[in-house]
Amino acid sequence: MTRRMFQVIFFELRRNLLRKGYLFATFGIPAIALVLLLGYQFIIAGNNDDTSVPEFDFRGISVAGYVDQSGLFAELPEALSSYFIPYNDVDAGKADLENGEIDALFVIAPDFLETGNVTEYVPTFDFSRMAPGVVEQLFYATLAEDLPPDVAFRLRQPSVQEEVNIQRGEAQNEDADFIAIYAFTIVFITSVFMTNAYLMQTVIEEKENRLIEILISTMRPVELLMGKIFALSIVGIVQVVVWVASMFFLLQVALRLPAFALTILPSIAFPVEMLPMMIVYFVLGYLLFAAIFGMIGAISSSMQEGPQYVTIFVLPSILPFYFFELFINQPNHIMVQIFSYFPLTSPLSMIMRLTLGAVGPLEIILSIALLAVGALGMMWLAGRFFRVQTLLSGNPFKLRDLPRLLRD
To answer: Which is nearest to 4 in space by CA: 223, 150, 250?
Structure first.
């Protein structure tokens, strides 16, 4: 590294580490999460007397009528008398439904215990009014009223599936795996895109206020670009370290709160064996997108133009998350393998596959190699774009300019 690159790094560190948006995202969001965690415990603690009857979502239904053909709900609990109106026959309930006396009518089948069949009548079709929680509330309040809270909870959630992956030789929890994948996705996308957006923003701002002319008169454009990338990489790593430490801290706090004793949280275990792979994919993915954002900053003439180009690269990178079910059911599907090797999608894809099951060492090596080549290639491409004639040009980028930029 040259002395000028170090100067760029120190300047960008001072500027970006003190940004209000960065400070809020890095430290404010974990603080808000802690407040919400403690607030949830406070709310649950204040409702301990009602924990034997879970509260369900009525989805906008204020008053519901029901026809009990099973004979199980002959006596309506007093606590629900303002929400439910019993009817002896369906026609009477339909009449009140048409007159607006009730929001929905539920007809409980005679073989409800065997089949769980319930017919719901609504005035007009409204998907938001499809509320199974209404009957569930009636069921719990009537048949599970005197059960202990843990038994009532287990009725609502009969099991937490644990599968044993014979390839990895260990037990897995699907919900815990999903949370681990989701956490990595959120950290990766937010940190990479937010901090690299600062890189693009600073380049465009320096072009707009013509500060870029002074900077490139004292150093080579590549030195300026690499200094910015290294500085923003440090900024991103600091943010990730704070977030990961906060996640561990919040998880430990939640495990000590009674409100979370019956949730999935106790079964969450961080896959320590995957930490090296997570670091490798995060670093290479970060450098790849840093070069992309730097290149976009170089060719963009305004802050309105830059985000339009960013979308071209951001949307493909999060595609694996939308195919999560395919990753679970067919981890060796051709599309899954393409996602695993394509540099823009490989960071998320490979972490998902490694979390859900075994991936062959050759696949891992090939995926990392292609991602590294992609990152280096994008760095080279960004260097071609990040030149004097491009930075000083006030003209919008056009596709016909691409061959000239690559050739010159």
So the answer is: 223
Distance in angstroms (rounded) separating the CA atoms of residues 302 and 201: 9
Side chain identity, residue 184: F
- In this structure, which amino acid lies at residue 47? N
Mean of pLDDT over the chain = 77
| CA 249-250-251 angle, 5° bins | 90
Provide DSSP, 10-60: HHHHHHHHT-HHHHIIIIIHHHHHHHHHHHHHHHHHHTGGGTTS-----TT
> How many other C-beta atoms are found inside a 10 Å radius of the C-beta of residue 73?
22
Residue whose C-alpha is closest to residue 289's, from 375, 352, 380: 375
Query: pLDDT for 268-291, tens place per residue?
Result: 656 667 778 888 998 898 889 888
**Spatial separation of the C-alpha atoms in residues 50 and 43, rounded to whole Å:** 12
Partners of 97 in the beta sheet?
Answer: none
CA distance 341 to 370: 7
| Cβ-contact 64, 134 below 8 angstroms | yes
Q: Which residues contact 167 (CB under 8 A, 6 or more apart)?
A: 357, 358
What pLDDT, on a 0 to 100 scale, did the predictor assign at position 81? 74
For the record, the structure tokens of 174 come out as 């699907």
Amino acid at site 97: L
Q: Write the CB contacts of 166 (distance below 8 Å, at least 6 apart in sequence).
A: none
Q: What is the pTM of this model?
A: 0.64
pLDDT for 311? 83
User: For residue 332, what is the DSSP state?
Assistant: T
Nearest in space to 283 (alpha carbons), one of 329, 312, 340, 241: 241
∠16-17-22 over CA atoms, to 5°? 80
302's CB contacts (< 8 A; 6+ apart) are 204, 208
Rounded to the nearest angstrom, the gap between the alpha carbon of residue 312 and the centroid of all alpha carbons in its chain is 20
What is the sign of the dihedral through the CA atoms of 162, 164, 165 and 169? Answer: positive
Q: Return the minimum-mean-pLDDT range out of 78-82, 120-124, 179-183, 398-402.
A: 398-402
pLDDT band at 346 (very low <50, low <70, confident <90, very high): very high
Q: Please report, for the chain, the start and end positions of each structural domain, with discontinuous segments joined by +.
A: 3-40+164-407, 64-146
Nearest to 191 by CA among 303, 338, 40, 29: 29
Task: Please give the structure tokens belonging to residue 366.
Answer: 């090939």
